[in-house]
Design brief:
single chain; about 190 residues; alpha+beta; 7 helices; about 15% strand
Length: about 190
């Protein structure tokens, strides 16, 4: 019965991780049920529905090796020592890393052990560094401001060209208008 249950758990994790571009592996430390629930709530709200699941290291090794770590099994073995939890789903590993970083300031035993971002295997420092990257909304804003800034520059250049042309024409009109009387008709004395 225990083997059948383990196979079901592995299958469930494999289905949950299938198609994901990343996850974080964390050491939850001695976390109470209340803290775990509060962390899960923050992950749901701030990381778009990300999930936090405690996992046995042997189960994690089997699932993560198949999904992400075939080329770096040594890093996986190093990462899966002591208590482990995986945090996955939602809006991806960057928002997850930001929530974990914020939680680490108030709950110090929580630490990042490693992770995967866009299929690239990361050690603890690399996975924790994801929290410093801009999120998808911030990147969209940066891209939009770059596009708008370029368009604004082009519009300003065009306005300057046409404005200069208008000033030259007005100067020519004013210059030609010196020989007229006040109503624009040639003056005759």
């Amino acid at each position: 019965m225990a083997k059948a249950l383990k196979r079901m758990m592995v299958s469930e994790y494999e289905q949950a991780l299938d198609g994901l571009d990343g996850l974080l592996v964390v050491d939850p430390g001695p976390m109470s049920v209340e803290n775990a629930e509060a962390l899960r709530k923050d992950l749901r709200e701030q990381a778009g529905g990300a999930r936090f699941r405690l996992i046995h290291n042997r189960t994690a090794r089997r699932v993560l090796f198949e999904a992400f770590y075939k080329e770096s099994p040594d890093l996986l073995d190093e990462m899966l020592s002591g208590p482990s939890a995986i945090v996955y789903g939602g809006e991806g590993p960057i928002p997850i890393a930001k929530v974990v970083r914020d939680w680490k300031t108030t709950f110090t035993p929580l630490s990042v052990k490693g992770g995967v971002a866009e299929g690239e295997v990361l050690d603890a420092a690399g996975a924790a560094g994801l929290a410093d990257l801009p999120g998808a909304d911030e990147l969209r804003g940066m891209l939009l401001s770059a596009v708008i800034g370029s368009a604004r520059g082009i519009a300003g250049s065009l306005q300057a060209v046409y404005g200069g042309l208008a000033r030259v024409l007005q100067a020519r009109i004013d210059e030609a208008g010196e020989g007229t009387d006040g109503d624009g008709e040639p003056g005759g004395e």
